[in-house]
Amino acid sequence: MKNDIDSILDALFSGGKLNVGSGTKSRAAKDAEDFLNSIEKTNANMQSSLNRQISDLDKLTSDAQRSMDEMRRLLDAEKVPYVINHRLVRGLDYYTKTVFEIIANSEGYSGTVCGGGRYDGLLEQLGGPKLPGIGFGMGMERLLLIAELSGAQIPQPRNVEVYVAAMGEEARKVGFTLTAKLRGSGIKTEFDHVGKSFKAQFKYANKIDARFVAILGDEELERGEVKLKDMETGDEGYVPIAALGNRVQQILR
Predict the structure, then answer these.
(1) What's phi and psi for 103, nearest 5 deg?
(2) 3-state SS, residue 194
(3) How far apart are the first and last CA of the chain?
(4) Residues 26-47: pLDDT tens digits?
(5) Higher pLDDT residue, 10 or 62?
(6) DSSP at 56
(7) Which of 33, 141, 212, 213 is the most buried (most CB within 10 A)?
(8) Bridge partners, residue 9, by sequence
(9) What are phi and psi of 249, to 5 degrees?
(10) CA atoms of 40 and 45, how far apart (whole Å)
């Protein structure tokens, strides 16, 4: 550090800019070194305090802990790799509970693609209803670059092909996993994330023009099947859960 300070002072006191004696330069060097040392010490103390405060999740409220546990369960169910970063901070202070970033580590590009989080109280703060929300900002140029580097094909827009209507805690867990599998097979699939009634789910499926509704309830889980309804023809029947994707693709062909 002393060499750095000397270099800075030499630059300041050379070239006839300042005509001072060596004593002045010596005092300035000492003051500068003391100042930088105090900053370094303060920063070290702050880091130590910060590490103590965020070393674990024990201080979460019960509601925040439930939210965190549910999010991690869903990520684990789909084998999505993630890292809990206690130091992750978004630039706006209206976020609640979880914030996140999606980071690419591909050849040709490495960095954040998008980031966001929950803001359950934002609408109410702006004078609107008490309504939870989640959102994110995403760099489209980065996303297109990553798609190009990975050779991904951007699909053309199409209508929803399957709407998974689930009722009950276990049925919703199976429905969430089933939705992910159908999407992975290239089948445009939607799923209810807010716990609507079957009637409301059917109404929404009709509104978004879903071709099929896959019904999952306690009875269907016991049978190991889904009840598949063709919204165009009105035909319906039972299909093994594991075979739903193949059945839908056969009909769509």
Answers:
(1) -115, 135
(2) coil
(3) 72
(4) 666 666 666 666 666 666 666 6
(5) 62
(6) -
(7) 212
(8) none
(9) -65, -35
(10) 9
